[in-house]
Amino acid sequence: MAKRTGFLTIPSVMVGGDKSNEVDIQVLPQSSVIPGEADIFISSEVDFQQSFVQAQILYKVKIFRGVATRQARIIEPKLSGADVLKEILGEDRNYESKMNGKNYNVLERVYAIFPQQSGQIHIGSSIFEARIVKNGRITGKKLFQSEPITVKVNPIPPPPVAFPNAKWLPAKSVNLNQEWSRNLDKLSAGEPITRHIIVKVLGQLSTQIPLLDIEPVKNIKIYPDKPELLDAIVPGGVLATRKDQYAMIGVVAQDVVLPEIHLPWWDINENIWKISSLPAFALKIIPSNDIELIQLSENIEPAEILVNPAEVIYSDYWKYISQIFIVIWILTVLLWWQSTRPKKKTYPIKEPPIYKQQAKLLRKARKAAIEGDAKSVKLLLLNWGRLQWRENTPNSMRELSELVTDPLSLELDRFCEATYGPNSNDSWDGQVLAKALRKITIKKTFKDLSEKDILPPLMPS
Question: What is 6-155's CATH number?
């Protein structure tokens, strides 16, 4: 980032036997232009000046261009203060705007910031660098920057009184819904059915949605399955979805009520605890069609039972036989259902969320970097990369450096040069690498890396 305004020269860089050319740039005073009159200006804003730990903060940058540009690129803001997770939300938007009678092409980029600890976050200036085309001439490179922003991050408040063990879930909105694998009109004893409970949270990551507390129900066997997690980009930020599946089997014919499900969450718009609920649900489990259950009436008088002792013995005999057959049939159904399930269907319910596993790996990597343990740094960062990119896992530190932005990308390249190849000398700066690991910005895909730095040229009408 430029330290002063005026005409500056970026010196040449030596790489092996090659030498780059010097580059002349002009740094304009910050916020010295009036929107609607300047040819180019840049603005930035956040949706919350105060927030909470792990709550989403949307940082929006807008670049207004009233003239055509060449070799344009955006330099991302640097964050300092509390540890954060930062992600670019979707693709950049381009649209037309008119201010004070002047036409502008506007490029808008939105970042989602998730602070991991309380304190203050200092968001540095976003910088737009480009050559300006005006009156048929192309100027030298010029820099335009936005105002820096400071956000206060509050600690996690106490849980609600009614739910002292509530998990922390800050969000804009939370909705619970349920679906069933088939019609519930004729649900027989011993027949399995699957209950799907869907939790949608606006302004949060899917890995942050806690496991629901499902109360046991008498004579109902419940088998939880692996949840499905999904994050989508919507106008309000990240829309997270968690879909839990529960296989359920009614052991006996009866009317049962599944208890109400509650999910406490913190409303970041109103700064209060709220409770999203799924109402209680009644199920009618009928006797199985294969075996006719024998039910004794509760209204039989004792005198009637003793009239013919032989008949009582006969009825008890068949009752026991029927119960044995029912148990055998239920065991057969359970074994059949168990054999049709995929083999790997048991998962530890209390496994730490992915973001906590990643934070632990990064802490160990920073410690290893400070201690100069290159082998541990490599192992820890590659394990972190496997959690971050499940589908396209980076297999080397060089591939990992291409998936993140500077300064971490630059430090990983230096780490590779110092520890690999014929010119390796194990002389790398662990302190600098540890510092770079505290602020990580992730690139979305390899394709996006080549497209993000190129903005469409504009010639306003």
Answer: 2.60.40
